[in-house]
Design brief:
The structure is a homodimer. Chain A is of the alpha/beta class. The first copy, chain A, contains six helices and five strands.
């Protein structure tokens, strides 16, 4: 059964394991094996923080290399864009030539979200690249073009779904649409 | 001369080419060839937006594959974290086994920045993973651990530099420190 790495910031939710388990069940229904970052089941007790981080990173990089594709949760996380760790993982799998797919539960374009962010932050608090003179990329995408194009070039399409407030990291309709794409792309010859 | 891909959101500055040129000069001084994403010099006139995005992505992926290392600007961009496109590129080079180095011109930990973000956004506007019950990773890093550890595992160290307000994307002291790391790591034999 093809293995799919389940990238996304839902690992930070208090019910992360439950969300991962729900994703895994949906994977199975599509003939895929879901691999959630927390699956490594590391015992980090007693380790210093840098060592903990090193073990988690090594485990996740190993899990990625063992997978045939990635489905990434691109929903904005603590700002305009997706989680940086998830973006790292999308690039990682892209470089390995594995299909990358993605969904977001916020429907607005990257451009519209960036403009809203600029309006929401006091001018004096804006870093220089956040100021009005800096360009906001405008390719009608949901995310930075490196991510958007990696998905399209994989044979997928970024799935955008409007969900009820507070369900942005838990609604799995977009994830299921990605699973259908992954199953199609990974189907044997 | 080893080639170093210069990843960062300064490509969106109005003076992007000048910043890239300054970085390239510093690279040469360290015996390295700087490769700025805008170096591809693409002619995108007359192309539809999705096609433009595709060409830029293909050019950048090609430039990355032609490079021996990446130095990434990790300075926060439109939110708590670094630019998502840059995070993608760090992951991309990491998967290829090329050294990844990085600097940020905001010195606060990822944890402190996330906490400040939560306080700054009206509760009702917080997406679910931004709410207080979601975990904020706490490994004393400047960024998500996948990025921080990739740099440490490359033999580098994330460089944090306090810079004057409004110079976050232009101050190159941290970049120079990364160049010294890159020159050391890439030095033959």
């Amino acid at each position: 059964m093809p293995r799919v790495y389940l990238a996304g910031p839902e690992v930070f939710l208090p019910d992360a394991l439950a969300v991962g388990a729900r994703k895994a069940v949906l994977c199975t229904a599509h003939g895929l094996e879901g691999v959630f970052p927390l699956d490594a089941g590391l015992d980090l007790s007693g380790l210093a923080k840098p060592e903990q981080a090193l073990r988690i990173s090594a485990a996740n990089e190993g899990l990625m290399r063992s997978c045939d594709a990635v489905i990434a949760n691109l929903t904005p996380f603590r700002g305009v864009s997706m989680d940086a760790g998830t973006a790292f993982e999308v690039g990682f799998m892209r470089a390995l030539g594995r299909p990358v797919l993605g969904y977001t539960n916020v429907t607005a374009d990257y451009r519209a979200r960036s403009e809203a962010y600029r309006r929401s932050v006091p001018q004096a608090a804006l870093l220089d690249a956040d100021r009005p003179e800096a360009e906001i990329e405008d390719f009608e995408g949901a995310e930075n073009l490196m991510i958007e194009v990696a998905i399209v070039a994989s044979g997928g399409l970024v799935v955008r779904t409007a969900v009820p407030a507070g369900q942005e990291m838990r609604d799995l309709a977009g994830f299921e649409a990605c699973l259908a794409q992954a199953a199609e792309i990974l189907r044997p010859g």
